[in-house]
Amino acid sequence: MRVLVVEDEPALAESLTEVLASPKANMIPTLAENGVHALAMIEQARRLNRPYDAIILDLTLPGMDGMDVLKSMRKASDMTPVLILTARRTLADKVDGLETGADDYMAKPFEADELLARLRAITRRRGADPEAVLPTCGNLSYDQGKGYFTVGGAVLTLPPKSHAILQALFRRREQPVSLDFLTNMDDAGSSQESVHTQVSRLRKKLQDVGSTAEIKTNHGFGYTLSASANKS
User: Fold this and answer.
1) What's the pLDDT tens digit per position in 99-140?
2) Other C-beta atoms within 10 Å of 130: how many?
């Protein structure tokens, strides 16, 4: 498993790479010392068709904050599993990181065994392991490498905005996603009415193609993508 470590502190970066490269972990770590470098390496790996299987991301980085790195990735529809590893320990920081698209959040200092367990867990959930099946919600699947959804094996064609909303919901499937997050996924932003309209169209599209995934409304908060218990 190829893991990009985004960490600017030399001693900690060395420790992380040793943990990941140990016989117990058997992973292949690569180091990026800042956010700009990380995004360049992620893009290069994508162009070479060798995307990273997971990313360990510090938040306090020189020049470009780790949260901005994560936002840039998700804005570019990069669904690579991300584990935030940071000294920022408040609940607000954790919620912000997860809402922005992180798959897990750990505070420093960390235990190596817990880090490896969480790293393996997020790659299993996302299907980042090339030997694993594609991540699914009912019969809705997302192919990270190719960047499209399928329903029962058939490609689901969506306009860009709808695709971005479905991606956000799919990342946190079976968990609620706030309306505030959906309206501020990109720099341009969207109105709440626009998001409601896009969600309505997505619901109809999923129903028309026979998807067993459905978008549920969490009144006063947002939406949740769930596998329907009423469909087979």
Assistant:
1) 888 999 999 888 999 999 999 888 876 654 443 445 789 999
2) 8
Domain range enclosing 50: 2-126
- C-alpha–C-alpha distance, residues 230 and 80, integer Å: 31
| Residue where one domain finishes, among candidates 91, 126, 161 | 126
Does residue 122 form part of some domain? yes
Domain tally, the chain:
2
Residue 190 domain-assigned (yes or no)? yes
Alpha helices (H) in 66-191, listed in sequence order: 66-75, 91-100, 112-126, 160-171, 179-183
Q: Taking a C-beta distance cutoff of 8 angstroms, is the pair 118, 55 a contact?
A: no
Tell me the C-alpha distance between 187 and 162, whole Å.
16
Q: Which residues of 203-230 are buried (b: 16+ CB within 10 A; e: fewer)?
A: bebbeebebbbbbeeeeeebbbbbbeee
- pTM (two decimals): 0.58
Give Cβ neighbours of residue 204 (< 8 Å, ≥ 6 apart).
none
